[in-house]
Amino acid sequence: MGEKITIKNKEEIALMREACVVTSTILDEVGEIIRPGMSTEEINTFVHRRTTDLGAIPSPLNYKGFPKSVCVSPNDVICHGIPAPFVVLQAGDIVNVDVTSYKNGFHGDSSRMYFVGGEEACSPDARELVRVTREALMAGIRQVKPGNRIGDIGFAIQEYIRGIDRGYGIVREYTGHGLGREFHEAPQVLHVGRKGTGDIMKPGMTFTIEPMINAGTHKTSLSKLDGWTVRTADGKLSAQWEHTVLVTETGVEIMTKSPTGLF
Ligand code: MF3
Ligand code: CO
Ligand code: CO
Question: What is the pTM of this model?
Fold first, then answer.
């Protein structure tokens, strides 16, 4: 297994929880402002302003050269969509907004899907993909408890998607990750895997689970133009939901759970 996984103590967890609350608060607010005709640049402006208002720093900005404060990934964009004035959301689009906030020396990372123009505006296939992807995340989260292994998470997600039997692809190249004082640290959390493999979960570990599920092939295509935008190789839709979780003495705490209980 890989590098050492950091264990956070009570004080560190309390500090990190505040970063996670900033993230989930902003994601709640995005749900209230997102509408057809809005550019992804406007979402970036909103997220940046709310992050600083809440006493945090947007982790994506300048991370490995990423030029914006949030990732916004519509339709066939799997992840790492760069906000731009010319990317305008339309009714019927599905879009992932991935917010990471840095506060108190810790990061909180979460993403959700939004239906542009409301769920009714979106196709049944798009709605099903979004629902199933959220269930896949929850299946992964249910594996989180001391003594279980990191590979159990990917196994549960893979088994859930297999059971749905819609021919969906699970993205391999991008994964969940440990986080805390660093944006990305050990362990790597794959969304496919074998039961009983990988590092053993221990209380105080914090990591993300963030399955990316494609309507078609699992294969991806990285934009040669911007070096960031990841699309499905076949142009079909992709969805993603992400939470930051803490391994507790008895199980799991979803650190980026919405204050309103929406997600
Ligand atoms: N928030 C993303 C994740 O879930 C990472 C974005 S990296 C960036 O891991 F540079 F694109 F912002
Ligand atoms: Co994220
Ligand atoms: Co993440």
Answer: 0.98
